[in-house]
Amino acid sequence: MRRSEDEPRNELDDYDEPPIEAFEEDEEPLPSSKRRRLIVKVIAALIAFAMIFQVGSFFLEHFNLNALQFLSESNELAEDGSFAELEEAVVAVQTGTGHGTGFSITKEGQILTNEHVVRDALEIIVSFSDGDLYYAEVVKAERESDLALLKLIDTKGRNFPSLSIASAPAEPGDSVFVMGHPLTHSYIINEGVVKESTRAYQVVDITNAVYPGHSGSPVLTTQQEVVGVVYARQAGGDESGQGLAVPLHVVNTFLN
């Protein structure tokens, strides 16, 4: 501040007035609005990419060429209606961790499926082709044979359609059918042939690969009788469609 020549001199005049910058605090600069918008856009892009990747993976797995092929074949086999009654007895078995296939073997609705389908399940829901759902509990299960027998709860005395267990086992070269709920599809029918038979399992060569959800599917003769239960896909059999099935004598031993 300037002093006129006529003003008396003050001792404070000997001190220089500090600049205004001396009174300002050092502060961290805030991110600009442009930077914030850029961060938001990057995060949104990453989330969108992750979602697109997941959806793409889902469609590649569930609607690839093989899946479309087994859908086409299944529709052709089902056209004449000869499998309609089988569909009424083949069920979807759902748990909190996944799903598989099963089938009714008595009019009371006892369901045969794989042990690994219901292993450690806190809740089991069985759904029929007519849309009816039932809670179920495990009556008997064996890891060694990978079979489980379920009992439906609160059926109100309903009589359920069921599949017949064959009296004779399938042999190598025999034609068979597999009906199940692979991936997100329902009541898929595959035609196949028994390729190999051992004491513990049979190799069933069907026209498409065995997928998650096929576990517990009945292996049926041309007379539509159960001769086995699908439980796994053979190592290296992804392209050929080779599945492993619990053979008839093991099923009978488990049920008796």
UniProtKB/TrEMBL annotation:
Gene3D superfamilies referenced in this protein's UniProt entry, alphabetically: Trypsin-like serine proteases (2.40.10.10)
Alphabetized Pfam families for the sequence: Trypsin_2
Basic and acidic residues bias locations: 1-12
UniProt GO BP: proteolysis
Keywords tagged on the record: Hydrolase, Membrane, Protease, Serine protease, Transmembrane, Transmembrane helix
A single GO molecular function term of this UniProt record: peptidase activity
Transmembrane segment boundaries: 38-60
InterPro entries, per database record: Chloro_Bact_Ser_Proteases (IPR051201), Peptidase_S1_PA (IPR009003), Peptidase_S1_PA_chymotrypsin (IPR043504), Peptidase_S1C (IPR001940)
PANTHER family: PEPTIDASE S12, PROTEASE DO-LIKE 8, CHLOROPLASTIC
Similarity remark: Belongs to the peptidase S1C family.
Region Disordered, residue ranges: 1-28
Annotated protein name in UniProt: S1-C subfamily serine protease
Biased composition (Acidic residues): 13-28
Organism of origin: Shouchella xiaoxiensis
